Amino acid sequence: MKIITFLSDFGLKGGYVAQMKGVASGISDARLVDITHEITPHNIFEGAFVLRSVVPYFPMGGVHVAVVDPSVGTERKGIVVATRKHVFIGPDNGLLMPAAHFFGDFVVYEITNKKYMLSSLSNTFHGRDVFAPVAAHITNGVSFEEVGSRINDFVDLDFGCGRRKDNVVVGKVIHVDRFGNVVTNISSDIVLKDIGYNKKVKVLIGKNAIEVLFVRSYGFVKKGDALATIGSSDFFEIGVNQGNASKKLSVKEGDVVKVMFD
Asked: Which domains does the chain have, with CATH numbers?
């Protein structure tokens, strides 16, 4: 099955998403799937996290168009990132790279061949005029080398990984979801080696020093209480049962997180 997915910060009130899908459907018979178009406007980091979190659940061979592109129309490149399992297409601003790193070895190509773009190319909507048609042509069998040349000077973005030193694991906030749950880059295996569920854990996060219960899910603490858990993306996160941890703790993406073990 051929699949093209779309992720953007365009929202659904206007016609931007429909235009991208209209272009793709006129070139390819691939199934068109929306990941989300509700990424916070211009938030490349958020878009990158969602893309990296979602794509592993798609069948191998998918082509994924992601457009969070505050520098559209400038000298920034458009790129195709080819991994062994999936293909990513979008602006060269780091948006595609955490997903690429997740799948391991990858090759990056700059999109330069106008044959695979729309004939009328706007300065402000490369999602429709460049990325969607290129994705459709690739599902039809056009090779990456026909789209453009391989490059090494792409913009990278890597969420990194929490690291343990003695009795402290140091990481950072990489995502705040719509519920206000604070997701870190500390993987589950680091935490679960030393902390059992229903045990208290000390956490330094942002400007806060808190002691919370480490639980399997949010409902294991009282409403309004803070907690620590392993979220669905397999990362250590801080939440508040039926509340907003990000607001309660004044935490944002990029803040340092330290988890202390006894």
From this structure: 3-151 (3.40.50.10790), 163-260 (2.40.30.90)
